[in-house]
Design goal:
CATH topology of the largest domain: Collagenase (Catalytic Domain)
CATH superfamily of the largest domain: Collagenase (Catalytic Domain)
CATH class of the largest domain: Alpha Beta
Number of helices: 14
CATH architecture of the largest domain: 3-Layer(aba) Sandwich
Length: 363
Amino acid sequence: MHTKSTAILQFIVGHSGFALISYLDKNRCLIYFTSMNISSNTTVQTFQYTLTGGKWAGSSPVITWSFAGNQGFDTTLGVSYSGYPQFEDNFSDTQKNLIRKAFQVWENVADIDLKETDDSTAVNIRIGWDSIDGSSSIYGTTLGQATVWTASDRITKASIQIDLADLPSADFSTNSPDSGKWSFLGTVTHEIGHTLGLGHAASSKALMYAQATGVVAPVDDDINAITALYGQTQALTVSQNPKDLPSLEKGIDPEMYLAANTDVAAADIDPVVHFNTYGWTEGRNPNYFFDVEFYFGTNPDVNDAGINPLSHYLEFGWTEGRNPSDSFSTSAYLTANPDVQLAGINPLVHYLVHGFVEGRSLA
């Protein structure tokens, strides 16, 4: 960890570029956290992640973000926030959609509301292209940089710069990049993590690891870190436990089902077996996105036939454009995610198994 002294409450995070030979050939990120000439990096011993020592204030904080598109705002903010970047270019529509996915990923797992808004000086986090590479002996081949200003351990403003010079070698898919490429989605998601108060993880499998490994989405270690700061999301969630994947593929979220049905948990009954045998007849829901009563109410033919509503949706309902609940639209998900539609995958199952952690839009 490199440190420097300054009286400004600010920490700066930079991503180092991918080497053409190996993702691990160079450091991915340099992190500086300075507060009144004292450098600090708080390690939580139970896990392998680190926290920077700052967080956004409030319970379930609403944190606004925008695409930086007005250089006049950069100049104005630079008066109050020393070192505020001067963004140089705008994102394409494809890049903007990936950035939205990156913000959504963190909102999906933590009790925070990351709200996209029109660009202004009042926005909490602004993100844009900038030239941050080149001759600097500190940052070297930097891909991205997050700068966060704090007061009394509370984050008050943040910015994210993505290096314009590295645009030609960027990978704009949602998958791990090929050798010689860097993941735009993974880099942006990593930098957003810093603006929320996350430091670097010790695990090379984590998104917040200091070196690039091709990880593009948060894993358990990253989720443990963000929930240590803000708690688990109170919104609709999906289990991230790998052992629950077979159940999620069947449309049942064991973590949610057992938490909502303590009698089933106490009896140590398999949630898949319980739901398919008793749960649906008792109006119990298999996951946060499928509502048994809603499905019966909006599909009287299924109700009259006395069919397991989840089984009906998984086999027939989604192909007929039926919705599993008022919080999940079959057609909207397929429209927002054309690759899922093209592959002919059940949209709800895709969201439970892949879409949630990837930050896929529901509409």
